[in-house]
Amino acid sequence: MDWLDVKEEKKDNLEIKEEVFVAQNIKKEEMMDEVFVKEEKYFPKEEGMDDTKVKEEPQINPPVGLKRKLAMSRCETCGTEEAKYKCPRCMRYSCSLPCVKKHKAELTCNGVRDKTAYVSIQQFTEMNLLSDYRFLEDVARTADHISRDAFLKRPISNKHMYFMKNRARRQGINLKLLPNGFTKRKENSTFFDKKKQQFCWHVKLQFPQSQAVYIEKRVPDDKTINEILRPYIDPEKSDPVIRQRLKAYIRSQTGVQILMKVEYTQQNLVRYYELDPYKSLRDNLRNKVIIEYPTLHVVLKESSHDLEVLHQVKSESTKNIGNQN
């Protein structure tokens, strides 16, 4: 072979090798392209996973508003949005605070449930029973709060107490007022009428033979004992119900005595004043000690022998006989 032929063969071999190398480069590029394509295909998968995560988040932590939505209902005020609230009083659906305020203004609704509304027995449920129970608890709590209110139970001022005592002293009555908290202090409704210049007494009437007690309020001090007792033991002018209970006094042949306990005596010594039924209450209370208000004991004469009575009052018949003599 000639030298030229050898060179051409080498050139041909080189060209073939170059072609092989180029082919290898092409394959590498194709492989790189495949890798790149695969990587491109891989990235969308990651983005898809992110999307699924984003979609799953509302299920894990749902908004608060979704929990309060009332299904299958619309706001009855605006009529466009889904309802979120229900008025406890008029049962009207609302979607927002402006709609709630608007419906209250239009319907003059206060939004407070009517606890005393009528519920038929067919519609009565355990919730209604619980509501009634809570309503009774609220009533009891309110009553207890009022009973503990210091403003309502505030004691009488010293100025008023001195005024009452001074007015009673002018009439010859020794009036004693108890501290706040005593039962007689709470019960006492006695007051002084400045216009008429007289006491209006709180008077307790006790009928021991019938085990009955009655209260007379605002009794003028110029009223006689007989006038005070007339609605109780008068056979013609007394109340029928009271007359039936006090029939032992009405049927009595010996009559009655009106007694009042003597205050500030020894513990085991109980004595009574006898009051004159024909005199006024003011005259009967004169020169006596009264604690808060007078208590009159109306007893049958045949039952008063065991009582120690002071200042016996002569009957009208005895007085008339004495005057005739």
Keywords for this entry:
7-stranded mixed sheet; Box C/D snoRNA protein 1; alpha/beta; disordered C terminus; elongated; single chain; zinc; isopeptide bond; 11 helices; two-stranded antiparallel ribbon; BCD1; 325 residues
Walk me through what this model shows.
The protein is of the alpha/beta class and 325 residues long. Among the domains are: 121-151; 159-310, Ubiquitin-like (UB roll) (Roll). The protein has eleven helices and eleven strands. The strands form three sheets. Strands 4, 5, 6, 7, 8, 10 and 11 form a seven-stranded mixed sheet that branches. The radius of gyration is 51 Å and the shape is elongated. The model is unreliable at 25-60, 62-69 and 315-325 (pLDDT under 50).
Give the strand tally: 11
**CATH fold description of the domain at 159-310:** Ubiquitin-like (UB roll)
In terms of DSSP E residues, the strand content is 15-25%
Total helical segments = 11
Named CATH architecture of the domain at 159-310: Roll
Work out the helicity level: 40-55%
Largest sheet: 7 strands, mixed
- The ordered H/E elements are HHEEHHHEHEEEHHHEEHEEEH
Global morphology:
elongated
- Provide the structure class: alpha/beta
CATH class of the domain at 159-310: Alpha Beta
